[in-house]
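Lecture notes, part 5. Sequence design as translation. It can be helpful to think of inverse folding as translation between two languages: the language of shapes and the language of residues. The source text, in structure tokens, appears below.
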């Protein structure tokens, strides 16, 4: 028959690392609601940034004659879009 000291020496299911991680995952899932429009919002940020800054680069390169500004504008637009996505979807 196990004594009370024997029961205290055995780890409880909550004390194991797996149970702790599972509990944290369940808490995080309960805190963040599922938003069905997130994928479309991310896609629109990516396309919008690329079109906006690519367009600005195209206009400036058209008037200055520097052809590299169009691709640089598109790359800048994608980079700023990724930064905006990270900012919007990772803050608590």
């Amino acid at each position: 028959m196990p004594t009370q000291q024997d029961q205290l020496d055995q780890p409880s299911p909550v004390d194991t690392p797996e149970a702790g991680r599972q509990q944290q995952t369940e808490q995080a899932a309960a805190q963040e609601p599922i938003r069905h429009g997130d994928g479309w919002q991310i896609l629109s940020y990516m396309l919008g940034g690329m079109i906006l800054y690519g367009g600005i680069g195209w206009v400036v390169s058209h008037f200055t004659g520097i052809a590299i500004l169009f691709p640089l504008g598109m790359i800048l637009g994608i980079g700023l879009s990724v930064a905006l996505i990270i900012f919007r979807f990772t803050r608590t």
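The translated text above is only one of many valid answers, since several sequences can fold into similar shapes. The radius of gyration is 26 Å.
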